[in-house]
């Protein structure tokens, strides 16, 4: 009886501490796109939708960093609401480059609060790549 109990405990411990179980999060496919043109968001959303279907339960995060002069367009809240709704539908996070906002004189208060701002979009993109994100710049 003691042997059965000890064997059961060891078996459960092996299951819980199995490195394969700990890597479930690491198996997620994460993506980041750096874009300089707002109209490119539409095909980016379609790409995210296709990858989510292909990856299934392994689909992780999909982030889009908007940088360059196009950040001026982020202040058009009517236009951006459609993009924000589509981003939510496809589990895409929209991110504005703070460096670009500063360079082109865009006040952060003038863009939708649904957009996250990172201080340096290029640096953030590289940091995500170091974490294993698949990356493309458009």
TrEMBL record:
It comes from the Bacteria. The keyword DNA-binding does not apply. Residues 1-22 form the signal peptide. Keywords: Signal. Pfam families: DsrE. This is Sulfur reduction protein DsrE. InterPro entries: DsrEFH-like, Sulphur_relay_DsrE/F-like.
